[in-house]
Amino acid sequence: MIPFMRAVREDDFPGVHALAKAAGGGMTNLPADGRTLEAKIRTSAADFARGATRPGGEFYMLVLSMGGKPMGTAAIFASIGRETGFVNYKINREFYFSISLKKRFERDVLVPTHDFTDCAEVGSLFISPDARGSGLGRLLARSRYMFIAQRPEIIADPICAELRGWRAADGAQPFWNAVGRRFFGMDFEEADAYNAAYGNQFIEDLMPRYPIYADMLPEDARECLGKPHDSALPALKMLKEEGFAYNNYIDVFDGGPLVDSKQSDIRTIKNSRVLTIADVRHAVDGPEALLATGALASFRCCRAKASVEGDRLTIGRDASAALNAEVGASVRWAKW
User: Fold this and answer.
1) pLDDT tens digits along 233-261
2) I want to staple 77 with a disulfide (CB 3.0 to 4.6 A). Which of 66, 121, 206, 244 is the partner?
3) What are phi and psi of 63, to 5 degrees?
4) Cβ–Cβ under 8 Å, residues 82 and 52
């Protein structure tokens, strides 16, 4: 069977745990701690089964199934910060001018905001090193938008995405060392693990309540502002291709960039349409497409060759099996 995306199940824990350990930290919703990760998977499985009718803070984790084994993850958060708020920094530019000195200055200021509280978020994008280089990373990323397109009313709008911030080869995190460590009294990994296990209320409690002038930070910390981790560059490129934009919002932990978009502006959602399977063949003469069926726990998404004539779709037997869909079924289609 070809690789496909589906809802996480509780029995996926061993495979997802192996992925989390391979991720190497910095992904709050893919923690390497087994107990924390198991609780997140259990929560997600329950959220899939709940059958939401509107955004309510649900956590939808998708896994890439290859030969029955989870080889990647992606997630959609229906509405973030509903209980404790979702806080980040907005980099604002201020201008100063002295008439007497005839000098003009520009200053970047980090301003705490809750601008994305109650918005949706896409994240937790990680693929096993053994599955990289075959275009599957794009399947992981775009499957989230097909999931949203199937049931847009249960996902808040707009949608944001946080990218892992830059860190040195030895693991040092300059932005955290300059800001977070001073106010939270712990190492980056400790704070990240606590956030994954217990939520972000402690961020609201302890983070600086007033703006921070970027010029007062060490140079290496300033260089981190809005700079993604090297491994996050492909994800950022794909987000921008989908219509997400960086508007000077950054993560309070590592200074990584936050991007956002309206649902209606996301390319995959905007350009997808629902077709009916007219035929299932052993081989299909057509371009590769992104295909999705079902919603919530029954959601599946794959990349496969497909032929389209009007509102009729012809797919191969491998795609039919991956999508769990036969002739007469509705399939959401988008160009690959």
Assistant:
1) 989 999 999 999 999 999 998 999 999 99
2) 121
3) -125, 150
4) no
* HSE, side-chain direction, 13 A CA sphere, residue 187: 7
With beta carbons less than 8 A apart as the criterion, state whether 270 and 148 touch: no
Q: How much is the pLDDT for 25? A: 63
- Evaluated on CA atoms 33, 39, 44, 45, the torsion sign reads positive
Q: Where are the domains of the chain?
A: 4-87+113-268, 271-335
Q: What is the pLDDT of residue 175?
A: 94
pLDDT at 277: 98
* Residues 151 and 54 sit within 8 Å (Cβ to Cβ): no
E-state strands within 241-325: 245-250, 257-261, 273-281, 288-293, 300-309, 312-316
Helices (H), the chain: 13-23, 34-50, 136-150, 174-175, 181-184, 188-198, 201-206, 219-222, 233-242, 267-271, 317-323
Extract the residue ranges of the chain whose pLDDT is less than 50. Answer: none
Can you name the CATH fold of 271-335?
Barwin-like endoglucanases (2.40.40)
Torsion of CA 267, 269, 273, 275, to 10 degrees: 120
How far apart, in whole angstroms, are the C-alpha atoms of residue 98 and residue 300?
Answer: 61
Q: Which of 65, 22, 63, 24 is nearest to 40 (CA)?
A: 63
- CATH topology match: 4-87+113-268 vs 271-335: no
pLDDT score of 26: 61
Question: Which fold would CATH assign to domain 4-87+113-268?
Answer: Aminopeptidase (3.40.630)
Tell me, what's the pLDDT at 299?
A: 98
